[in-house]
Design a protein that fits this description.
four-stranded antiparallel sheet, YlzJ, 4 strands, YlzJ-like protein, mainly beta
Length: about 70
């Protein structure tokens, strides 16, 4: 079976639901990003969800970027 999706295998089939307790989708400047909440309350970007190729060239939405105050 082949799934054509921007989501990872673990997000579709799941493993342990507690592993995803700190993850959520948020909207930043009109773009949807998948983030994980850090211990200090900030967020770390895991993935950008977009159909616009230009969004992926913007380092603001690069995986690993820390977002505070959202």
């Amino acid at each position: 079976m082949i799934l054509y999706t921007p989501l990872t295998e673990y997000e579709i089939f799941g493993v342990d639901q507690n592993a995803f307790a700190n993850r959520q989708f948020i909207n930043i400047n009109g773009r949807t990003v998948h983030v994980e909440r850090n211990n200090d309350g900030s967020f770390s970007i895991l993935q950008l969800i977009s159909t616009d190729p230009q969004d992926f060239l913007d380092e603001t939405y690069a995986p690993g970027t820390i977002i505070s105050g959202h």
